[in-house]
Amino acid sequence: DMINKQLGDLNLMKNFGCTVTRIRRSGIDLSPSPDLALKFGDKLMVVGEKDGIKGVARLLSNDTKQLSDTDFFPIALGIVLGVLFGKLNISFSDSLSFSPGLTGGILMVALFLSAIGKTGPILWSMSGPANQLLRQLGLLLFLAEVGTSAGRNLMATFQESGWLLFGVGAAITLVPMLVAVCVGLFVFKINILDLLGTITGGMTSTPGLAAADSMTDSNIPSVAYATVYPIAMVFLILIIQVIASAVY
Questions:
Q1: Dihedral through CA 180, CA 25, CA 214, CA 141, nearest 10?
Q2: Sign of CA dihedral 183, 185, 190, 191
Q3: In what order do the strands lie in the sheet with 28-30?
């Protein structure tokens, strides 16, 4: 019931004599403000008398079991809606049309539903453990499929194109990455963990994020990745279709 409620509307000081000093959301500390809307899984640091804090806990709930349980209905429904949206063909002109595709459709619908947060009894969110499990499982399946598909033709491709193809691929990967590192570190003074997440998100490289996560206990790279990835994916899908339409 508290999802999407603004912190100021709860009147915690008046009703319980308590003050919220910090809100942690997905590993990020937020400064509390009256217009801050609460989301599922937010962790609130509350200062007050013992009885007042118990009242706040009853109001907001403090059930760790509910936070760790996984409801697969919103996930399945979101995927179905994303697949249907991905099949839409949006025309801008006679020569230019845009289709979100399977991954783009699911991504856009997920962004929209997570922004809503709740529709009736349905919570458009996942618990932290479920999110981590699905992310790791998805990465394993993705790498297994890529390895299986590429392995059969690897030697034939290498014999046909030689080192040129691999050199071009390495340059396309390394040059933008090194430029982004230099600009981020020396021009914008971005924290290295934020920069790792931003670069892997801009490259839409989930394996790169996994490598960054394995080298640090912080979830800063994951948060930066999640911030940049949707924008990069949408532009990637759009630009590829624009190029394909211009060529063909």
A1: -90
A2: positive
A3: 28-30, 19-25, 43-47
pLDDT at 95 > cutoff 70:
no
Neighbouring CB atoms inside 10 A of 137's CB total 10
Query: CA–CA separation, 32 vs 65, rounded Å?
Result: 25
Distance CA 117, CA 124 (A): 5
- For residue 207, what pLDDT band results from cuts at 50, 70 and 90? confident
Nearest one of 226, 179, 171 to 198, comparing CA atoms: 226
CA angle (91, 95, 101) in 5-degree steps = 45
Q: Tokens for 75, please give them.
A: 């996930």
| Helix axes 206-214 and 220-247, enclosed angle (nearest 10) | 160
φ, ψ of residue 57 to 5 degrees: the values are -65, -35
DSSP state at residue 10 = G
DSSP 36: P
pTM: 0.61
CB distance 53 to 25 below 8 Å: no
Mean pLDDT of 158-186: 84
Q: How confident is the model at residue 9 (pLDDT cuts 50, 70, 90)?
A: very high
Residue pair 205/196 in contact (Cβ under 8 Å)? The answer is: no
CA dist., res. 103 & res. 79, Å (int):
10
CA distances from 42 to 14, 17, 62, 215 (A): 22, 20, 10, 26
AA identity, residue 176 = P
